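Quick illustration for those who missed Monday's session on complexes.
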Amino acid sequence: MTIDLSSHSVRSIREGLLSKDFSAAELADAAFARIEAVDGDVHAFNATSKELAGAAAARIDAMVAAGETLPPLAGVPTAFKDNMNLVGTKTTCSSKILENYESVYDCTAVRLMLDAGAVPVGKCNMDEFAFGSSTENSAYGPTHNPWDLERVPGGSSGGSAAAVAAGEAVLSLGSDTGGSIRQPGALTGTVAMKPTYGRVSRYGVVAFASSLDQIGPFSKTVEECAETMNVICAHDVMDATSVSRPAEDFTAKLRDGVKGLRVGVVRDLLDLEGCDPKVRERVLESVESLEALGAEVGEVNLPSTQYGLPAYYIIGPAEASSNLARFDGIRYGHRAQDPTDVLDLYMRSRAEGFGPESIRRIMLGTYALSAGYYDAYYGQAQKVRTLIIRDFERAFADFDVLVTPTSPTTAFKIGEKAADPVSMYLSDVYTIPVNLAGIPAVSVPCGTVDGLPVGLQLMGTHFSESTLLRAAHAVEAASGFVPVPPMVAAL
Ligand code: GLN
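Prediction with glutamine bound:
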C-alpha cells in the first residue's frame, strides 16, 4: 500500500494505526519513499535517520499489537532542525565547523517528541547556526520551496518547514530567535509557532542568542500545532530559563470561536513601506473574517517596534559571538591542520569552519560588546528592547491578539537577496519584536498571492498560546485555504 503522508494528520495516523489500516513501520517507509522522491529537488534534509525511525516505529507497532494505549504522537513521522541534538545523528547546524559532530545527548524537546511516540525521520537543513531568513546560508546548499523550487522556503528553519510542506514529514521542530519558525512557516504555507520564551526547554538546541531562542512546531494544521505544543511545553531542570507551569491542553479551546475576542491590527507595521500590498490585502481579508465571526477589531500602533531590527542586530550577534566562542577547533568542531601555534590554530579553524554570515555575526557582536562601544550599542539596544516590551504591554491592555503579516513578502527567488544582507534582514521586520519581548506568536496560512502562500501573524501576551491557537483555528477555518504545494498535488 502506498501511503501519502501529505494527506495525513496526527489524528488520522492514530486512527489508521488503531484500525490497523497501516503500521508505524509502513508510515516511516512512506516518509522515506517521499524523501527519496522529492528531496533531491527540495533538499529539506541534511540527513535521514532510518535506524532510529525503524526502532521507534517498531515500538509503536508493538504497542498496537499489545493493545496498549498509544502516546499522543504515536507513529507520526517527524523531522528536527539540525541544531537539535539527537543521539544517533549528527548535529551540524548546517556548518562545516560541525560537519562531523555526533550528538552526545538528546535535546529535551526532541526527547519529549520521541517519548510521545513521534518517529524521527531526519535532521533538517537550516541557515548556518540559524543565521538567516532563506536557508541559503547553509554550508550544504540551499533548501528549495516546495511551492516553487526556484524560491527560498524562508529561514532559518527552512528545511523543517519545507519537509512538512512537501509531505516528507507530518510534523517538524524548528527554532526561532528572530522569526526562524514563523517566517518559513509563512513562506511554505505551514502553521508555525514560536512559544513564549521559557515555555519550551532550550536544552540541547545549539544556542544562537540565549535570551531570544525558542523551539516550536511546524504542521499543516492548527490542531496539530496545538497537539505538538501539548508535548513540548514542559518544565526542564536542565534549562534555567524554563518556566514551571501546570500542563495545559492547547487543543481544549481550539473550537471555541472568536466571539468577543479583541483583535488589534497593528497599523504602523501594516503600513510599512516594503510590505507587498497584496500581502496586506490577504491579511486584512482574514481580519474581516474574524470580525464576521464576532471578534472586536480595532487598530493599534507599536511605535518602538520600528527600532526592533537594529536592536536585534546588536543583541542577537552580541549573544551569538559569545555562544559561538566554543567552536574553536579545540573544544568543538573542525580543527585546522599543522598549526604553527595555538593562535594560528584558533584563527584558521574558525576561518575555515565558519561561513560568511556566521563570520559577519561574530564580528558584529564582538564589536558591539567591545570596551568603549558597549554602552553605545549593546546598552542602547537593551533600552530599545525595554521600550518594545512596553509597547506590547500597552497594546495588550486593549487587545487579546495583535495581527500583522508574518513576512512582508511571499517567498523570494533563491539568490535574490543573497548579496544584500540588509534587505535579507528586513524579512523579519514583523517577527523580531516578538522575540525581543519574549511573547508567543503563531503564523497561520491565510491565502495566496500569485500562487504563493501568505502567513498571518497572531501575537499575544506571555503564555497566551491557547488564545492564539483558537484565533488561528478560526482564521484557518474561515480562509478555507488548504495549502498544498502544486508539486505535492502532482505526486
Ligand atoms: N532571520 C533572523 C536572523 O537572521 C532570525 C533567525 C532566527 O530566528 N534564527 O537572525
